[in-house]
Each structure stands twice: as structure tokens, then as C-alpha cells.
Amino acid sequence: MTTPLVAIIGRPNVGKSTLFNRLVGGRPALVHDTPHLTRDRRYGDADYFGQPLRLVDTGGLDPEAATEVIGAGIHRQAMRAIEESDALVLVVDGRSGVSSVDHELAKQLRATGKPLFLAVNKIDHPKADVLVHEFHELGLGDAYAISAAHGRGIDPLLEAIVEATVGPKEPVAAHDPLFDAEPEDFADEGAEEESDANAAIGPLRVAFVGRPNAGKSSLTNRLLGEERSLVHDVAGTTTDPVDAPFTIGGRDYVLVDTAGIRRKAKIDADIERIAVSMALGQIERADVAVLVIDAGIGPAEQDARIAGKIEEAGRALVIALNKSDLVTGEAKKSELKELTKDTFHFLTWAPTVMLSAQRGDGVDRLLDTVDKVAAEHRRRIPTAQLNRFFAEVIEEMPPPLHHGRAIRIHYITQGAIRPPTFILWANQPEGLAPSYKRFIANRLRQAYGFKGTPIRLFVKARKDRHDRE
Known about the structure:
By secondary structure, this protein is an alpha/beta fold. It contains 14 helices and 15 strands.
């Protein structure tokens, strides 16, 4: 089954990202009434009655804005989406009528020779269907009246796209053996599929997070070898999180470029607040978070806050000191290392990589480190091995008394991975001091590594035999 790539094109503020969100599900793209909010290509997956579709959202095309640096970048990103797509959807604003930009885009898209569909958006009620007629002057054939915000008219549009790119769906024959199969016939097949799904690791999701202008987009582009995210020295160039599939050395990744995260007190615009919220949300979805820091400036308190969010979310973490080519001389490098160590004193387990996204120095080392911490993040220690280790720890330093009674830790198990989570079974869980739990966590790291991943440690009750009598 082929998966067509469908590009959503149009001038600013016609509802392209709203349509993208409607088709993909949820709110993966930032939506606001500010022009040029979408700047990079955003990809997502949709399904129409079993037929998968791959969608790409693009920034608004405006000839006047294309003369500016960011506007030109948006234009390049949209042109790339048009080139690589199998079909195109031109979205227009049904309430504002036909514009000269719509005419220009229609002419340009017709010249591609690709299947082209006209979606007249913001037709929220059947009474407004009459507004669609004037768009026939664009010469694009059928015009689909839709409301991306409310979901009206989406099915006919999707049906036409699927038929043009894949062909009409063949009806299932009446004698198809699936109709005659009993439920138990599927039992083994389903179990096998579930087992395969559980065994598959899938692409490694890597989120680049950090303050504005740290070089997250430059690093994403360097790894991909193309301009996938716009780069500009104006803070806030990236708004939506940008997902980019990436394969190297037989390993699959999804690289996620996010908006710069500033302190709440410095965030004024609604757009930036939403963008920051979406960036923080990407930490939760990631396997590994790469905290990108401008080495020329050095880490700051806000970087420590972001790192704390990553630790709270239980994600693997790599600290990337970007623009390290700007740090010259041993004295400056030594000062940077000390500042990094002091800023992240609570994250001694997080590895640091010095690199330059602009020159490419250290980028391969970053990927190697990401792979290593991802492996540590999902590492599991066999229970028997774990308890042989733990017996030595208890013998070396027994837990202190609690209210005059000895705390007995009967055994330890690993309850989960991503992050590695351990459970201690003790007769007095409430009496085990945080300092002793930190001691155990440190001994786990000494014995098994867990470099780059937080460790979770919980204590549960299990009474002694004499307590139960």
C-alpha cells in the first residue's frame, strides 16, 4: 500500500495549519491569527478508511514577504514541499474571496502537472456554500467547501485525493475468507502481531531544546544535510516543533526542532507562550532530549531549569555546547567546563558534548552519545544479578534505624525502563531517608553505568515474618 505525500499550500491565514491539525489529529501545528506563524515544513500522518496519507503543512506564501529573510525562507520551504509531494491542496479563504495571490498560486501549482485540489476554507455552514462559486475563476476544477475548524466537508476532499493518488478502492468480495473466519482464527495472528509490536524499538525520538538562538535549528539542518528548519539570528524564528525522520548507519531517528524556551517573565506574546508550551511538551514525547547551549555565552539559570524539566519527565539527556568554535584558548575552555559543571551540579550523570553545528565539528560524536544514553535509558538488570549486587551494598552500609527499629530491605527489583525504575521492598518504607536512597542510586550507577539517564527509586512495604505473627 503506497503512501502519497500531500502538500497543503496557500497564502497566510487561510487555515492551512488548522486543516493539517484536523487531518492529522490533535494540535501538532501552532494555530493563531498572526501571519507567517508556520515557517518550516511540518509532516504528519493521516488515514482515510485504511489508506494512509502523509501530509506536509507549509508557511503562507506572500510575494511581498518573500523579499525579507524569513519570508524568503518560508518560500523556499514551501517550494521544497511542492516539489516532493504527489498531490497539492490549495487552501483559500472563502470568507475573504479570491485574491491576486490566490490567482498567482493557482497558476504556479497548475504548472507542476500534479493532482491539484482547491479547498475553500471557512465555509462553516451550508448557507455559506454560495461563496464557493467565485473561486471557479481560478480554473482548478471542482472546489471543495470545507471548514477545517469544524470538520465540515473534509471527507469528500480526502476521497478525491485518495482516488487521484492511489486509485479507487476495490470493494471486498462477498466470498472473501475474512467474512467466514471465526474469532478464534485470529487469536494466534493477533498475539504474534502484539509480540512483534512490543519487540520493536522503532525510531529514536530526539528533541533539541534550549534557549532562543542556541543553534537548535542549525544542528537539525546539519544532521539532515538540508534546510529543514529556518535559521535566523532573530529570537523566535522556530515556532512549531518540527519533526524530521532521519536515518544514518541503519538507525532510524525522528529529530525534533523546538522553539526557544525563555523564562515566563520574559514571555509576552500569546504565540511565544504557546510555542514554549509545545516545546516543553516535546520533552515528554522524546526518548532523548538534547539541551543545546550557546557555548559563546555559556550555560545559565534558565538552562538549569530546562534540564530540571527533562529530569522530571524521566527523559535521557545530553548537554550540547554548540558554537564551541567560538571558544578559543585553554583558559576559556576550562572556564566553560567549570561553569557547565556548576550549573548542572544536580545532573552529574548527564554527558556533555562540545560541537559546532555551523562547521560540523563534534556532530557525529553527539549522535554516538545520543545512541549510548538511549541504550542506558532502556537498560534492564536481571533481578538475580541486581540482588547479588544489593546484598553487597547492604553489607557495606545498612540502612539507619527508624524510631529505634531496624529497617530491613528484603530485596530490590527493576519495575520499568525509560527511565530505569527500581523498587525496594522494606518493612518500614517511610523510614528510609532520601540520603540513603541517593546512596543506593549512586551505587547503581557505579555498578551499571546508566550514563545519561535519570534513575527512579521507590520503596514499598513488605513486612518481616515476625511482624506478621
